[in-house]
Specification:
The protein is α/β, with parallel strands linked by helices and 295 residues long. The chain contains eight helices and eleven strands. The protein has helices spanning 2-25, 128-139, 150-165, 167-170, 194-206, 227-249, 274-280, 291-294; strands at residues 38-39, 47-58, 61-65, 70-75, 81-84, 106-113, 119-126, 175-184, 213-219, 260-261, 282-290. Helix 1 (2-25) crosses helix 2 (128-139).
């Protein structure tokens, strides 16, 4: 009974957070036409604390929209602290890395302005409930659900509409692909071998020379076995690649988009033969450069 009650409270909190997110992103009270918000400029050296929802993220920067629909560009650095809010006297902050900063996450950012009018974040905090809500919202935009209710479909379509309007993030024609590699894995394995590491070494050598680059990591699995287990396996494969790039080559996490495991939802080929399934057990890694930022 206690677990049921706790689960119900979690669902209610996540639902309320999603309502707040939609209210920040959309004008009016319905699923209206998305419109850009006002732009906030933070004076150079000025201290500021802003609470809002992440509208979009592009590597080490993201756009934060507050309740008045004013947008602020926030910059991440290696010294930025990312953590959950303190709960009571005996529960301190729980640290997170930059991959937790998903579109749709409600957070508070503290820092100082730079010469470009952006907020250079020194400290970012959010609640665990809001993180769960952001993960739920983000997952609904990825093709990992086999069955969706009509309400889920509306939310997914709205989320995609918001992302599609942000050309710096979701419009592929705004990016130049510097380098792409496809790393193959053995059955039921997320371990990188010598060949896979060699591929990643070559890709990592291209990244530092690209201005304002972003690394995109997508994991996949073949269709044999359980759907959920394949989803988890594809995520472990993507995480293994991210860990190798950050630990071995020192690529900052702020340069890597949220690694996503797609399971068996996007086969590379017909997925009918053993050779087809071998191609499906993969991670696709791309070094991208935003055309607008590189000019």
């Amino acid at each position: 009974m206690e677990n049921w009650h706790s689960g119900r409270i979690t669902i209610v909190v996540i639902s309320l957070s999603l309502v707040l997110i939609i209210g920040m992103l959309l004008p009016g009270s319905g699923y209206g036409q998305f419109q850009p918000g006002q732009k906030r400029t933070v004076a150079d050296g000025e201290e500021a604390t802003i609470k809002g929802v992440i509208l979009s993220r592009d590597g080490e920067t993201f756009v934060l929209r507050d309740i008045s629909r004013t947008d602020t560009a926030v910059v991440l650095t290696d010294s930025t602290k990312i953590r959950t809010e303190r709960k009571g006297l005996f529960r301190g902050h729980k640290p997170f890395d930059m991959t937790a900063l998903l579109p749709g996450l409600i957070l508070q950012a503290k820092g100082k302005g730079d010469s470009q009018g952006r907020l250079v974040a020194e400290d970012i905090t959010f609640s665990e409930a809001d993180l769960k809500a952001a993960i739920t919202s983000y997952a609904q935009t990825a093709p990992v659900e086999k069955q969706l209710t009509e309400t889920d479909k509306k939310l997914e379509e709205t989320s995609k509409e918001v992302l599609e309007t942000n050309k710096r993030i979701s419009s592929l024609d705004q990016y130049d692909v510097v380098k792409t590699v496809t790393v193959l894995f053995k059955v039921n394995s997320a371990k990188l071998g010598a060949q896979q590491k060699a591929q990643l070494n070559e890709l990592a050598s291209k990244a530092p020379g690209a201005k304002n680059y972003t690394v995109e990591v997508k994991g996949f699995a073949d269709s044999t076995g359980d759907f959920q287990k394949n989803l988890e396996l594809s995520q472990r494969r993507a995480d293994a690649v991210v860990q190798y790039l950050t630990v071995k080559h020192g690529i900052p996490l702020r340069r890597i988009t949220v690694p996503m495991g797609y399971g068996e939802t996007k086969p590379a080929s017909g997925d009918k033969t053993a050779a087809d399934r071998q191609k499906d057990r993969r991670v696709e890694v791309s070094v991208l450069v935003n055309k607008g930022l590189s000019q």
